[in-house]
Amino acid sequence: MKKCEECGAELGEWQPGTSKRFCTDCIRKHKRDAARRRVAAMRTIREMEKLVKPVKTIAEIQHEAQAAGMSYGQYVASLRR
Question: How many domains are contained in the chain?
């Protein structure tokens, strides 16, 4: 009889030639853990999206550059410093 790789329990209805490695309890545990990891990853992605600066349009930047008395290129170069 083949045994579960994680807990050592016997795999009930197991047919030779199949790749069953875990018992049903361990499979549930693995799925639950994977779901938790997915939720945590989505939370991290949402938090990172909040940190991204709002994007200005070219027209808005051009307007700011004119107000500062610079050309568009000079203004953008000064923002990168």
Answer: 1
